């Protein structure tokens, strides 16, 4: 296979060196060049024809967002943003994802060498995945330590009574790479009285609050970052906080959000599998679930558990996904019988949620 050709764009010479060294240590990647600002990057894109850009936000002569907007309009290509773990960094990064960036990784304020080295595997995986993505504007191997891959069993045992509760419908959505924009599209199409929606998006802790606030501004529903013990109500959407698993539990009178500080599942925290398993146990056949664009397979087994519990399940189709990893894995497992374009998912979720539980099978029909 051809190596992924990467151009590193950052005004910091240290960051350019660290990123270049780290990316070059992966045999799948070739760093073809670096640039200290967008104007240099513009010329090097023409000369070197990279497959992927890593792009800093704060740079001289032209800021990263302006450059990204121009790039996605004139020469769309996969871009992975390098962002700071601050509230302002989160806002800028979310705007970059709106403009067409595929993914991002966080640049620490201190100990750059140590933090980057610890994230090498994740950063290289993001770049390789970005090379296989479909960028769209809005309108010698270094041995790395690998964390054990845990299943949802690490947080919540599989219930033997899943699917028996029923009751008022709750919509569950899981997503990862490309998901912030996919979730926006779904929430923008929801009416203010839509059934409650619970959402797990793979996102760092510093980014989930600003992401929820951004979604609240663009949706007729009330959207918030979930809090432990929070009642789940119609017309509201609840987004899992970064670094905590979101579960839906029955407290004897109502469904509530529960936050769990357990280990990463499928190397993610929050994990979609954890959310979906909790829904299978506490909501069962009244669940309507969708798995959207994302890298990896988190959520695929959880969606299968929901389907087996009688819930209605669907996935985003390959053509409209930035990365058809998670939805593709679920579809291949038989966890969903329906794969829909992103712009049709909100309407389908609403129809399924308003369908009487005993009128038809709750697994989405082809």
TrEMBL record:
Enzyme class: hydrolase
E.C. designation(s): 3.1.1.61, 3.5.1.44
Active-site positions on this chain: 176, 202, 298
Domain CheB-type methylesterase: start-end pairs: 164-350
Range of residues in the leader sequence: none
Entry's Gene Ontology molecular function annotations: phosphorelay response regulator activity; protein-glutamate methylesterase activity; protein-glutamine glutaminase activity
Subcellular location: Cytoplasm
Record flagged with keyword Phosphoprotein: yes
Biological process, per Gene Ontology: chemotaxis
Modified residues (4-aspartylphosphate): 56
Domain Response regulatory: 5-122
Gene3D superfamilies from the UniProt entry: 3.40.50.2300, Methylesterase CheB, C-terminal domain
Post-translational modifications reported in the UniProt record: Phosphorylated by CheA. Phosphorylation of the N-terminal regulatory domain activates the methylesterase activity.
Function in brief: Involved in chemotaxis. Part of a chemotaxis signal transduction system that modulates chemotaxis in response to various stimuli. Catalyzes the demethylation of specific methylglutamate residues introduced into the chemoreceptors (methyl-accepting chemotaxis proteins or MCP) by CheR. Also mediates the irreversible deamidation of specific glutamine residues to glutamic acid.
Family: Belongs to the CheB family.
NCBIfam families (alphabetical): PRK00742.1 (NF001965), PRK12555.1 (NF009206)
Name of protein: Protein-glutamate methylesterase/protein-glutamine glutaminase
Gene source species: Frateuria terrea
Organism taxonomic ancestry: Bacteria, Pseudomonadati, Pseudomonadota, Gammaproteobacteria, Lysobacterales
Gene name for this UniProt entry: cheB
């Amino acid at each position: 296979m051809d190596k992924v050709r990467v151009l590193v764009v950052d005004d910091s010479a240290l960051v350019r060196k660290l990123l270049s060294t780290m990316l070059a240590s992966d045999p799948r990647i070739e760093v073809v060049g670096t640039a200290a600002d967008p104007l240099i990057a513009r010329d090097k894109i023409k000369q070197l024809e990279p497959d992927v850009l890593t792009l800093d936000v704060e740079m001289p002569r032209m800021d990263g967002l302006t450059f990204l907007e121009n790039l996605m309009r004139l020469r769309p290509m996969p871009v992975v943003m390098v962002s700071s773990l601050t509230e302002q960094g989160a806002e800028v990064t979310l705007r970059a994802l709106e403009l067409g960036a595929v993914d991002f990784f966080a640049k620490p304020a201190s100990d750059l060498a140590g933090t980057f080295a610890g994230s090498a595997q994740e950063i290289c995986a993001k770049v390789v995945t970005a090379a296989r993505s479909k960028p769209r504007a809005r309108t010698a191997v270094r041995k790395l330590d690998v964390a054990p891959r845990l299943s949802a069993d690490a947080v919540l045992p599989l219930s033997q009574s899943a699917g028996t509760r029923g009751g008022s419908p709750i919509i569950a959505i899981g997503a990862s790479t490309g998901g912030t924009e996919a979730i926006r599209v779904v929430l923008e199409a929801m009416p203010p009285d839509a059934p409650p929606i619970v959402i797990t998006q793979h996102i760092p802790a510093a980014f989930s609050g600003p992401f929820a606030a951004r979604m609240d501004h663009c949706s007729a529903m009330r959207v918030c970052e979930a809090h432990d013990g929070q009642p789940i109500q119609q017309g509201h959407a609840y987004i899992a906080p970064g670094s905590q698993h979101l579960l839906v539990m029955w407290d004897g009178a109502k469904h509530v959000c529960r936050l769990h500080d357990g280990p990463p599942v499928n190397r993610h925290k929050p994990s979609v599998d954890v959310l979906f398993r909790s829904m299978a146990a506490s909501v069962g056949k009244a669940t309507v679930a969708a798995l959207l664009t994302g890298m990896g397979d988190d959520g695929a087994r959880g969606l299968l558990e929901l389907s087996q519990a009688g819930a209605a399940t669907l996935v985003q189709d390959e053509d409209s996904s930035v990365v058809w990893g998670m939805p593709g894995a679920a579809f291949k497992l038989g966890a969903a019988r329906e794969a829909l374009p992103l712009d049709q998912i909100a309407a389908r979720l609403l129809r399924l949620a308003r369908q009487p539980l005993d009128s038809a099978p709750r697994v989405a029909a082809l």
